[in-house]
Specification:
The complex is a heterodimer of chains A (300) and B (352). By secondary structure, chain A is mainly alpha-helical. Chain A has one domain (2-296): ABC transporter involved in vitamin B12 uptake, BtuC (Orthogonal Bundle), CATH 1.10.3470. Chain A has 12 helices and 4 strands; from the N terminus they run H-H-H-H-E-H-E-E-H-H-H-H-E-H-H-H. Chain A has helices at residues 2-28, 35-44, 64-87, 95-117, 128-131, 143-165, 167-177, 179-184, 189-215, 224-237, 242-262, 271-285, and strands at 122-123, 133-136, 139-142, 217-218. In chain A, helix 3 crosses helix 9 (189-215) and helix 11 runs antiparallel to helix 12. By secondary structure, chain B is mostly helical. A two-stranded antiparallel ribbon of chain B has the order 1-2. Chain B has a two-stranded antiparallel ribbon with strand order 3-4. In chain B, strand 3 (298-300) and strand 4 form a beta hairpin. Classes of the chains: A mainly alpha (300), B mainly alpha (352). Chain A binds chain B through residues 86, 89-90, 93, 95-97, 99-101, 103-105, 107-108, 110-112, 114-115, 224, 228, 231-232, 235, 269-273, 276-277, 279-280, 283-284, 287, 298, 300, and chain B through 67, 131-132, 134-139, 141-143, 146-147, 149-150, 153-154, 156-157, 210-211, 256, 260, 263-264, 267, 271, 308-311, 313-314, 316-318, 320-321, 324-325, 328.
C-alpha cells in the first residue's frame, strides 16, 4: 500500500514534466531538453548567488505566495528567452536539429550555473515542514507527496480547461494539430509558441519547488533525470496528446516505484533497465504511444 | 574497356575522398604533436579517437537519416571489452572476478584487443538493432536513447565484470598520436567505402524516400541493420582506444555527456558527410582547446590575462548554438570532397 502511494507521487511528478514536454512538442515538434534547466534554475533562484555549499536563502525566504510567484516568474522569463533567442531562429528545421540545439542550450545553462554557483551540490533548509509525514487511514504519507499529487491534479485540470475553453487554448490545440493550416486560418505562430513555452516554464517551476522540498538539495543537474523520465513518459503516452502524456508520466513513475517494491532483490538494481525495456516494447507495439493523436500519424 | 575506366574513376574518387580528409588531418596532427606540450598532445589524441567515434556515428546517422542517441553505449561496451582483455593482469582476478578463466589468465595484445572490442560492440548492435530498427524516425531515436540507459544500468550493476559504478584503473596507456591517427584514417576509409558501396547508396535511398526505395526492392530494415552494426564496430573501437588514452574507465564516462558531445560534433560539422564528421570533431575540439588555453591565461604585453574558469563550456555551447542557427546543415553543409573534374577528365583520357 505504501508503495502504491509512492508510485502515485512519483508518477504525478513525472506527469507534470511530461505535460510541459508534450505541450511544447505539440506546437513546435521540439523535444525541449532545456526543460531540465528550467527546473534547475527555478531551484537555484531560491538562494543568493554564491559558491557556498550551505547557501543563504534569497527568494526562498520570502512569504510563500510571493516566493512561488517569484520563482514562477524567473522560470517563465528564462523559458521565453530561450524560445526567442535559440528556438525561434531554428523554427522549421527537422526535429533532430532542434533536439540537438536544446541539448546545446541545456549544456549552456549547466555551465553557467556551474560558473556562478560552482558544481558541488548544496543543501538548503526549505519547506521541511512539508516533508513531515501525515497520517491518513493508517498510512504515513509525506506531506510533499500529497502536495505533488494535488499540484498535478490542479495543474492538469487548469491546463485542460485552458486548452478547451479559452481562445488562446483553442489556438494552441489547432497549432498542435496542423501548424501551417492554423497559421493560414489566422493563428499567430509567435504568440502560440511563446504561450506554450511560458506554460512549460510554469510547470517547470512547480516541479522544481516540489523537488527541492522533497530532497532539500540543489544540484546543477537536478533537472535532468526527471526530464528524461518525463520525456520517455511523453513517448509512452503519445506525443502531441496532453492527457496521454500525463498518463504516460504516471505510468513510468508508477512502474519504476512498483518494480522497486516487487522485483526480487537480485534484480532490483536493474530496475531502470526494465523501465526502459518497457519503453522500447511500447514503441514497438504502439509506435504512436498508448493514445494515438491524429496529428502525429506518420504516413506509411 | 568502359567498365574498366569506370572502375578506375570509382577507385580514384574513393582515394580522393579519403585523402582529402586524411592528409590535412595528418599535417595538423604532425604540427600539433611537435608543439611539445603534453596537454596539446593529449587533446590531439582525444580528438582523433573522437573522429573514429563520430565517423562511426555518421555511418548510421548520416546514411539512414535516423538520429541515434544510443551509440555511446557501444563505445562503453568496447571500452569494457578492451579492459577485460588488456587490463592489469595482477588485479584482474580481484576486480573482475566474473570473467571466464581464459580472459583472467591471459592478456591480449592491444591491436587484436581493439578489434575484438569493436566486434563485441558490433554483435551487441546486431542484437539491439534487430529490435530497435523496426521503428521509424523519431521513435527509433528514442528507442536508441532507451538502449543507452539500459546498457548503463546493466554495466553499473554488473559488479563482477565492471566494478559497478566505480572505475577500472590500470589499463595500458599505449595510444600515441600515431596510433590514434592510424585508426582515424582507417575509420575514414571504412566510412567512405561504405558510403560508396551499394549498401550505402541503398540506405541513402531509404533516407530520401522510404516508399520509393521499398518499391525498388530495397529491404530498408536490413540496410539499416548493416549500417548500425558497422557504426557500432567503429564506436566499439573508439571506446577501446579511449580507455587506453585515460588509463581508466567508468560507466559514466560513456553516458549522457559523451552522447551529447559526439552528436553535437556530428551536427556541427554536418550530418550528411564523412567530411562533416571529421570537420565537426576538429572544430569543436579546437574551440575547447583554445578556450582552455585562454582560461589558463595568456601574456598580453606585461599583463597576464585569464578568462574565468568554466568559461570554456559556455563558449563551446554558444559556438554550437551559433553554428546550428546560422548554418543549419553544419559547417560542411553535408558536402563531401569530390574528385575534381580536371582529374576525372585526365583519368578518362589516360585509358583511351
Amino acid at each position: 500500500m505504501q508503495s502504491l502511494v509512492d508510485a502515485a507521487a512519483t508518477g504525478s511528478l513525472y506527469a507534470l514534466v511530461a505535460l510541459a514536454i508534450g505541450l511544447v512538442f505539440g506546437v513546435m515538434r521540439l523535444i525541449n531538453f532545456a526543460q531540465a534547466d528550467y527546473i534547475t534554475i527555478g531551484a537555484y533562484a531560491l538562494i543568493v548567488p554564491s559558491a557556498s555549499t550551505v547557501p543563504t536563502l534569497f527568494i526562498g525566504a520570502w512569504p510563500m505566495p510571493l516566493m512561488v510567484a517569484a520563482v514562477a516568474l524567473v522560470v517563465v522569463l528564462v523559458a521565453l528567452a530561450t524560445e526567442r533567442l535559440a528556438f525561434r531562429p531554428l523554427r522549421g528545421t527537422d526535429p533532430s536539429t532542434l533536439l540537438v540545439s536544446s541539448f546545446a542550450l541545456s549544456f549552456l545553462f549547466q555551465q553557467t550555473i556551474m560558473l556562478i554557483f560552482n558544481s558541488r551540490p548544496k543543501s538548503i533548509e526549505f519547506g521541511s515542514a512539508l516533508a513531515a509525514a501525515v497520517e491518513i487511514a493508517g498510512l504515513r504519507v509525506p506531506g510533499v507527496q500529497l502536495l505533488t499529487m494535488a499540484t498535478t491534479i490542479v495543474a492538469g485540470t487548469l491546463l485542460v480547461f485552458f486548452l478547451r475553453y479559452t481562445a488562446l487554448g483553442v489556438e494552441i490545440r489547432a497549432a498542435a494539430e496542423d501548424f501551417t493550416m492554423a497559421q493560414l486560418l489566422g493563428v499567430r505562430a509567435n504568440r502560440v509558441i511563446a504561450v506554450s513555452f511560458a506554460i512549460s516554464g510554469l510547470l517547470g517551476a512547480s516541479v522544481s519547488l516540489l523537488l527541492v522540498v522533497q530532497t532539500g538539495t540543489l544540484d546543477y543537474r537536478m533537472g535532468i533525470m526527471p526530464v528524461i523520465y518525463g520525456f520517455f513518459a511523453t513517448v509512452i503516452g503519445g506525443m502531441g496528446s496532453l492527457p496521454a502524456a500525463a498518463l504516460g508520466g504516471f505510468l513510468v513513475g508508477a512502474a519504476s516505484q512498483l518494480l522497486q517494491a516487487w522485483l526480487p532483490p537480485d534484480l532490483r538494481p536493474f530496475r531502470d533497465a526494465f523501465v526502459f525495456g518497457f519503453v522500447i516494447a511500447v514503441l514497438l507495439f504502439r509506435p504512436e504511444g498508448l493514445a494515438r493523436p491524429r496529428a502525429m500519424r506518420e504516413r506509411v | 574497356m568502359a567498365a574498366d575506366r569506370h572502375r578506375l574513376i570509382e577507385f580514384a574518387s574513393f582515394v580522393w575522398s579519403v585523402a582529402a580528409l586524411a592528409l590535412p588531418l595528418g599535417v595538423l596532427v604532425f604540427l600539433l604533436s611537435r608543439s611539445g606540450s603534453l596537454a596539446v598532445e593529449q587533446t590531439v589524441i582525444e580528438a582523433l579517437i573522437k573522429i573514429v567515434a563520430v565517423v562511426g556515428l555518421y555511418v548510421f546517422i548520416g546514411n539512414s537519416g535516423i538520429m541515434s542517441f544510443g551509440h555511446v553505449a557501444f563505445m562503453g561496451i568496447g571500452a569494457y571489452a578492451a579492459a577485460w582483455q588488456t587490463c592489469c593482469p595482477m588485479l584482474k582476478p580481484i576486480v573482475m572476478s566474473g570473467l571466464p578463466d581464459i580472459l583472467l589468465q591471459n592478456t591480449v595484445p592491444n591491436f587484436p584487443a581493439s578489434v575484438a572490442s569493436g566486434l563485441l560492440a558490433a554483435a551487441a548492435a546486431l542484437a539491439a538493432g534487430a529490435v530497435i530498427l523496426r521503428l521509424n524516425g523519431i521513435a527509433a531515436s528514442i528507442a536508441s536513447f532507451s538502449l543507452l540507459f539500459i546498457v548503463n544500468v546493466i554495466y553499473s550493476n554488473a559488479d563482477r565484470f565492471t566494478q559497478g559504478v566505480g572505475s577500472i584503473v590500470g589499463l595500458p596507456v599505449y595510444v600515441t598520436p600515431t596510433v590514434a591517427y592510424a585508426w582515424a584514417c582507417a575509420a575514414i576509409a571504412l566510412a567512405c567505402l561504405y558510403h560508396r558501396s551499394r549498401f550505402g547508396v541503398a540506405l541513402r535511398a531509404c533516407r530520401e524516400d522510404d516508399v520509393a526505395a521499398r518499391a525498388a526492392g530495397i529491404n530498408v530494415y536490413v540496410q539499416r541493420l548493416i549500417a548500425f552494426v558497422l557504426s557500432a564496430f567503429l564506436l566499439g573501437v573508439s571506446g577501446a582506444l579511449y580507455g587506453s588514452l585515460l588509463g581508466t574507465i567508468s560507466v559514466d564516462t560513456f553516458f549522457l555527456d559523451m552522447t551529447f558531445m559526439l552528436v553535437a560534433m556530428l551536427v556541427v560539422g554536418g550530418v550528411r558527410s564523412v567530411a562533416g564528421a571529421v570537420v565537426g570533431v576538429t572544430a569543436v575540439s579546437a574551440v575547447v582547446e583554445i578556450f582552455r588555453q585562454l582560461q589558463n591565461g595568456i601574456e598580453v604585453g606585461a599583463f597576464h590575462v585569464a578568462l574565468p574558469a568554466g568559461f570554456q563550456g559556455i563558449a563551446l555551447a554558444l559556438f554550437m548554438l551559433a553554428v546550428l542557427i546560422f548554418r543549419r546543415e553544419g559547417i560542411t553543409g553535408g558536402h563531401e570532397a569530390i574528385l575534381p573534374e580536371r582529374l576525372r577528365r585526365a583519368l578518362l583520357a589516360l585509358k583511351k
